[in-house]
Design brief:
This protein is α/β, with parallel strands linked by helices and 391 residues long. It has 16 helices and 11 strands. It starts with a strand and ends in a 26-residue tail after the last helix. It comes from Hemiselmis andersenii.
């Protein structure tokens, strides 16, 4: 196995150059992680990363951040987009762009807070095509080569890349991955679907990922499945020979997946949701939309009326589902937790609170996380000593 040590100063300035590890030297230094939480739009935020690390994840990516969004954010607020934390390592920050200057600028801004900077060549969505980032850039290898080469030379941490496979053209897929490695990438994560297979449609071609792994001398991660259990994880590792498995949907559905916990019962998922919300309460930077997303994923088949109607069930919890799906109802971890506890109370779950949670109307009004006073109908009561009482 070949490992490389690359200077991050321009050629010709080698005297006194600091060196950094890349490839397998870097990979071993961060612990040779095998179980990887994928970059997700919004949903691999710090609270969720802490949750999956508790249950076996050994490497996490931040949510995908578009470089233009990062650079348009006030300097003092930029790190809030990735939420760095000393206990959240190893960590790879993923950016999406088609501009090499922007990628370098973003990388420099975060390189002291992470273990690598990743270039997104995997997003297949229409927004990515429209704004010219993600998987569509795989059709422009010269542009990608310039971005990766500069990043490998100028950043103080390794550059990594997440890519997809080409449609029934494994030779082209391997050649593209080789180009990334030769340009200075220290790791390549390969999703086994093409750019046209959006929303996880169609077959995930593990055999194509395996060909990339056998052709490169840097770490390779396998992505795509479906990966729903640790049995699937081991099957993917065996089929591809990769250094690790990157998982997204499987972890959203079961954050304990890497811990060999295959209990996806409603009781267990509600317990996982409450554990996640405890993490969100600890990390005040957790975005409200991320919390609502996790509530929707974990509670869908428990409280979604559409799901129940399709399965000839009831919609007793339609009020909870409407609240979870509203962009104006839930803003804090406290509110989200009260919704989960309300469901636990209704289901007589072992983790239900000793006393009934507040009425939903009161939960919705408590945006600051302070429990208001309410009557039996969930209406706010006058609070003695409040601002309204002052002259």
């Amino acid at each position: 196995t070949i490992s490389r040590t690359i200077s991050f100063l321009p050629p010709g300035e080698m005297e006194g150059t600091l060196l950094r590890d890349t490839g397998y030297d870097w990979w071993r230094k961060i612990g040779s992680p095998k179980y990887v939480c994928a970059p997700m739009v919004r949903n691999s935020e710090l609270a969720f990363r802490h949750l999956v690390r508790r249950h076996g994840a050994t490497l996490c990516y931040t949510p995908m951040v578009r470089c233009k969004d990062f650079l348009h954010t006030p300097v003092g607020e930029r790190l809030d987009l990735i939420e760095p934390h000393p206990d959240d390592r190893p960590l790879i920050v993923q950016f999406a762009t088609d501009n090499e200057d922007d990628f370098i600028a973003c990388g420099i801004a975060v390189q002291d807070h992470c273990d690598a900077i990743d270039l997104n060549l995997g997003c297949p969505q229409e927004a990515a095509v429209r704004d010219h980032y993600g998987a569509c850039l795989m059709e422009e290898p010269d542009l990608v080569r310039r971005i990766v080469t500069r990043a490998a030379r100028e950043l103080t941490v390794p550059v990594t890349v997440k890519m997809r496979v080409f449609d029934q053209d494994d030779a082209r897929t391997v050649a593209f991955a080789k180009m990334l490695s030769e340009s200075g990438a220290s790791l390549v994560a390969v999703h086994g679907r093409t750019a046209l297979q959006t929303h996880h449609q169609g077959e995930c071609r593990w055999e194509a990922i395996g060909k990339v792994k056998r052709a490169l001398d840097i770490p390779v991660l396998a992505n795509g499945g479906p990966i729903r259990t640790v049995v699937d994880v081991e099957a993917c590792l065996k089929a591809t020979g990769c250094d690790g498995v990157m998982c997204a949907i499987g972890l959203l559905l079961n954050p304990r997946l890497f811990a060999c916990n295959m209990d996806t019962s409603r009781e267990n998922r509600l317990a996982m949701l409450l554990e996640y919300l405890e993490c969100a309460e600890q990390h005040k930077s957790t975005p409200a939309r991320a919390m609502r997303d996790h509530l929707q994923v974990m509670l869908r088949d428990m409280i979604c009326p559409t799901f129940y109607r399709r399965n000839c069930g009831c919609d007793d919890h339609k009020d909870l589902w409407n609240m979870v799906c509203s962009s104006r109802a839930l803003w804090t971890a406290w509110q989200c937790k009260q919704v989960a506890l309300t469901l636990a109370w209704r289901l007589d779950h072992p983790l239900k609170p000793e006393t009934p949670p507040p009425p939903l109307k009161a939960i919705k009004l408590a945006k600051g996380g302070d429990m208001p006073a309410w009557d039996d109908d969930g209406c706010l009561q006058q609070v003695s000593g409040s601002d309204e009482d002052q002259p």
